[in-house]
What does this fold into?
Amino acid sequence: MKKLIRNALLRHAPPVFYAISSVRFFQRCKVLYADIQNRLHREVYGNGRIQVLSGPFKGMEYYNKIIWGPVTGKWIGCYEEELSQVIHDILASDYDTLIDVGAAEGYYAVGFAWKLPATRVISYDIDPIARRRQRQLAKLNGVENLQVLTYCSHEELARRITNRSFVMSDVEGFELELLDPEKCPALTRCDILVEIHRAGGMEVSGVEKVIAERFSPTHEIARFGVTPRDASSIQCIPGLEKLSAEVLTKAASEDRMPEQRWLWMKTRHPHS
It folds into this structure.
């Protein structure tokens, strides 16, 4: 019965389905992450403003709110540190449009817009709470060059991609459908950073292979996997010196699967 109701809502009332799913997920995140989040907030920031302590978005302001997953690694600046050099390279590039699909509360979308105020940033997320959190984060940082949208289709991508565009994708498996150059040829002329998930009955490795094969004729592809967080190096970050390795390890955890992968795909023909 529950499955029938779920399918009916998804088919006939998608906004209602996504709103209910969002509330349930955020309740789960509160149970999982609120304790370490409040502890880090109290012991590191006290009554002061929350700012990212390190990494490519160092100095960006944040809030103590429940988001889509753990927020403490973002406060520390070690979130997805496997991609740190890639993010620095993106910030140093001359893109005129940055597109973030599956932006959640906006760590990247707001971060890019904050660091690159003259660049157009467009974000998408079907989760209504995530979009609200993203607008709150943008306002907190005085960001005005970010457009927050809902659903991203092939047609939407084709309309937004310019001669110098970057696309970031973290869409929980929908990348198998979305990142298809046959359905959206504009993807062949932009750089793409995609987080790979299970999809279409395939494990992460299978989805990675399919997407890499789609883009290998037009892109140079680098692969990144999960690396363990080093509590001792995190402890060296100013503001974290007094925290124990146990607390820092928990705060830096992103609860990722060991097989997690990212693909960084740089187009060979950006202006074709």
In short: The CA atoms of residues 114 and 228 lie 28 Å apart.
